[in-house]
Amino acid sequence: MDKSEIPQKSIYRISLYGRCLDRLLENDHEMVSSAALATASGVKPSQLRRDLAYFGAFGTRGRGYPVAALRKAIYEGLGRAKFQPVVMVGAGNLGSALLRYDGFKKEGYEVLAAFDSAAESLRGGDIPVPLYASEDLPEFVKKNSVKMAILCVPGEQAQEATNVLVEAGIQGILNFSPVMLQVPTEVVVNNVDLALELQNLSYFIKK
Amino acid sequence: MDKSEIPQKSIYRISLYGRCLDRLLENDHEMVSSAALATASGVKPSQLRRDLAYFGAFGTRGRGYPVAALRKAIYEGLGRAKFQPVVMVGAGNLGSALLRYDGFKKEGYEVLAAFDSAAESLRGGDIPVPLYASEDLPEFVKKNSVKMAILCVPGEQAQEATNVLVEAGIQGILNFSPVMLQVPTEVVVNNVDLALELQNLSYFIKK
To answer: What does the domain layout of chain B look like in residue ranges?
Structure first.
């Protein structure tokens, strides 16, 4: 199946199902019903069945899905087994915090290097990857066949940094800058705005 | 209007419009068309008009929205002006990285304290807020009227930590643990799974 035919939201949910299956496997479950897996993932069973059908996974009525086989199908489909190099753009407050987080590497994403327009002044800090000036980015990205970037620059620099990334051949950007980036259709951007998440939550707090 | 009538996704998008309006105001724009604001926010103009109508904001045909007034209406509606205390649960790798990030405070969210089951061994590190043992959480939350928490514990501790938070009176949880939390309907959870975001991106990368 052509990847572009699967909605991005389905891919999100399918990753979540994978997470739940990890846990079921750890706890020695052999089978799981679509209802139970849907509840654990926070979706409707009908949605789960539609999503899994994209990957050719169909449960057996009354028995559900075999945990290990479904998990394998999902991770092969998602291409998780592959190692994926990443660059960090912006090594200020948030960028350097994320560089110290080891959760990316655990999942197969290695941040090869960080780039910052103030690289000179940041050097000597506790940044655990090589740190280069912004101008060195295009050559590095091409030389190391990097296709993914994490963007942690201030809002006013985000679009310009994005243009450089796209020009250099980056196809996927995890954007922590509080800006909606304009990119060509073949480039995918996922936005994570941490302050916006808190703002959204606080709206629902009873005073 | 009753808050519960506005869909959570609209609140998300409305926060985004606020971000775009910040920028327009900085650049001395007085008016903005719904089409321009929609493009900058990555949504359809019809969606934007529907969202803003929840807050009683209606543009003028042919002229659009007044930037300063719309921004004010949005932030008052979202309740952003208010200071909101937050606790961090889990001060390991990701938790301590986020504690060093100053973006929350800028938006009016102050992390008052962090709680960790291994607080003893983490003390003396570079955690910039008071760090307490997990058992101290319920009393602290009640005493300081904290309604929001950021959850950064490992997956296998997440649900138990959540139960404690809910019991203590927390109404909103920003969840960084890779687990779908089960909470009562009156508690809102926003999930941020950083590795999942990368995984999702990498699916769309051409090999």
So the answer is: 3-78, 84-198
How close, in Å, is residue B69 to chain A by CA atoms? 20
Look up the CATH number of domain A3-77. Answer: 1.10.10.10
Residues paired with A148 in a beta bridge: A86, A172
Query: What's the burial of A124, exposed, middle or buried (CB within 10 Å: 0-12/13-18/19+)?
Result: exposed
Query: What are the tens digits of pLDDT across the range B91-110?
Result: 988 888 888 877 788 778 88
| Fold annotation for B84-198 | Rossmann fold (3.40.50)
Question: Cα A126 from chain centroid?
Answer: 24
Q: Which residues pair with A189 in a beta bridge?
A: A173
Q: What is the pLDDT of residues A115-168, one digit of tens each?
A: 999 888 877 677 889 999 999 999 999 999 999 999 999 888 999 999 999 999
Long-range Cβ contacts of B179-184 (<8 Å, 24+ apart): B179/A19, B179/A23, B179/B155, B180/A16, B180/A20, B180/A40, B180/A41, B180/A42, B181/B151
Residues B147-159 have pLDDT tens digits of: 999 999 988 899 9
CB-closest option in B109, B197, B198 to A198: B109
- Taking domain B3-78, whether its CATH number is 1.10.287.180 is answered by no
- For the segment A25-46, what is each residue's pLDDT rounded down to a tens digit? 888 889 999 899 998 888 899 9
List Cα–Cα distances, B189 to A47, A75, B178, in angstroms.
20, 26, 13
Nearest to B195 among A94, A97, A103 (CB): A103
What was the pLDDT predicted at A82?
Answer: 66
Does residue A86 surpass a pLDDT of 70? yes
pLDDT value, residue A3: 57
Verify whether the Cβ–Cβ distance A204 to B107 is below 8 Å: no
DSSP state of B64: B
Choose the mutation target among A171, A194, A206 for the interface with B, i.e. most B CBs under 10 Å.
A194
Is A174 in a helix, a strand, or coil? strand
Output DSSP code: residue B60: B
pLDDT 10s digits, B66-88: 999 999 888 888 876 567 899 99
Supply the pTM of this predicted model: 0.76
What is the C-alpha separation between A142 and A70, in angstroms, rounded? Answer: 36
What residue has token string 């789960």?
Answer: A48
Report the C-alpha gap between A15 and B74 in whole angstroms.
34
